[in-house]
Amino acid sequence: MKNSIWIVDFGSQYTQLITRKFRELGFTSEIMTVEDAFERLKSTEPKALVLSGGPQSVFEDVTDYQQFFSHEKLPILGICYGMQILGQKFGGKVEKGVQGEYGLAKLRTVPGFTIPGCPPVSDVWMSHSDHVSVLPEQFKLIFQSENGLVAGIKHEVRPILGLQFHPEVHHTVHGKDILSYFLNDVAQLKADWSSKTMLETSLEEVKAIKGKKVLCAFSGGVDSLVAATLTHKVIGDDLYCFFVDHGLLRPQDIHHIKLLQEKTSLNIEIIDASDLFLKALHGQNDPEQKRKIIGKTFIDVFEEKVHQFEKSHGIKFEYLLQGTLYPDVIESISPHKKGGKSVTIKSHHNVGGLPERMHLSLLEPLRFLFKDEVRAMGAELGLVHDWVYRHPFPGPGIGVRVLGGLDRESIRKVQESDQILFEELKEHKLYNSTWQAFTVLLPVKTVGVKGDGRVYEEVIAVRMVNSQDGMTASVTEVPWSFLNRVSSRICNEVKGITRVVYDCTSKPPGTIEWE
Question: Do residues 321 and 229 make contact, with C-beta atoms less than 8 angstroms apart?
Answer without folding.
Answer: no
